[in-house]
Amino acid sequence: MSGKNNKDKAKNRQGNASAKHYATIVAQRLRCIPKKVWWAMAFLVAVAYSWVFYSYFVEPSGFRWRALYGDPKYPDTDGLHGCDISHHQGVIDWSRLRNAMVNRKPVQFVMIKATEGSDYVDERFDENFREAKRVGLIRGAYHFWSVLSDAREQASFFLNNVKLEIGDLPPVLDVESKLDAMSTEDFQREILTWLHIVEDKYHAKPIIYTYYKFKEAYLSDERFDDYPYWIAHYYVDEVKYKGKWKFWQHTDVGRLPGIKGYVDLDIYNGSFYDLSMLCISKTQVDDPMKEVLNNPEDSDSTMTDVYTEDGDYELKEGDYELKDSDTHSPD
Questions:
Q1: Catalytic residue (choose from 84, 168, 190, 200)
Q2: Is 176 a catalytic residue?
Q3: CA 107, CA 77: separation in Å to the nearest integer?
Q4: How much is the pTM?
């Protein structure tokens, strides 16, 4: 028995000696590698790490990636300044916000999150919407597009929860995502359905919010050319998007008195008169479509949607159709 143990110990010693021998050989060969090769290998590792970090942490969050250093530099522009808010900004001190300045120019408008999908109303929408009007800011209300419900449901939900008035900005559709399984043509048709339903209610072209790369990838179609654009493009001196735009969201790390933490800041591309003319007028709020919707036989409209007894906007399944000119395949 002891002889067997001695043989096992001898084998283990031999194995350990072999391992040390190979380790010594490897170490000697590594020491023979020139320093330039080591630096090249380190550089390649750094490049690989940077690519992985960007691909999995920076690029997926797109324009929402936070600045890593310093305070954001606000663009120097002749346009009007504003901001957009939601429940993420918490309770706002509107008496301070009404006097806020960006680059020594007053904040003159505010975009407010109202709804998302077909079942969520921002918890601070009612108060924010009311207070914005009270302090004299031009206000707008936006709907955050969801890939989890269809366009008709989302449009109906928005119209039932947001009552725009004279002097408010047109409805806003915030669209930032598309199902991978959905074709671009089907996606565009869904977006157009929402836009047309809401436009028929207010007789005003809704504003489309998106970031410029998403616009170029999925909304670069002539059917969207007549809609005012609100383009998100951060940490640049000017918008890289070459098309027409009305609003530019230039940072998501802005600071304003009356708001705790970060807030999105925006610029309107025009004068105060231009912004006022974009707002909803009396004829639009009087809603000439209401009579059309309840008396479709007296109209050329393809819509047969009606108002309920409670005044809610009800979309009957299958009744809304896009015009022939809006159903062509993209070139």
A1: 84
A2: yes
A3: 13
A4: 0.70
